[in-house]
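Can anyone check this?
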Amino acid sequence: MSTQTRLWLPLVSVLALVAACSPPLPSGVDPDALKAAVGDAVGDLNTCVVLAEAGTGRSVWRYGSSRACGTAWPACSGAKVRTVDQLMKTSGREGAEIRASCPSNADQSRSVAWAAGPAPGRPGLVFTAVMEGPNTPPGVVLGDKLRSAFERGGLSPAS
């Protein structure tokens, strides 16, 4: 076994264990179809979307880079800054409808949008999302785009 393989093997093992501990998406939801639908609707380098169990806030699916998901963006209300996970741990896990947007830099050439609420058609699931950039839509538009993407991606059961 090469030195490089010995260095990567523990990391891959830890990542596999973390993935195994995460609760799955609901039965019948294809994660690739959901990723494609969300990407088509709101895909951007600075977009993060999290689906989680209501009440616990335990993540079941995530879209976006660790940078987008881990960056503390202006909160647009109350707290000065927050991450998408911090929003999930507070209002998001309760299923509160949140739609907010505000400038994300001093010259107001960029903005941040927040959206959160119950996952459509999936009692027990909630979502939180953040998007930041020079052409970011308002939080209400981000939320509407995500609801539509969730339906196209198979999250909402067929009626």
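Reply from J.R.: I decoded it. DSSP finds five helices and seven strands in the chain.
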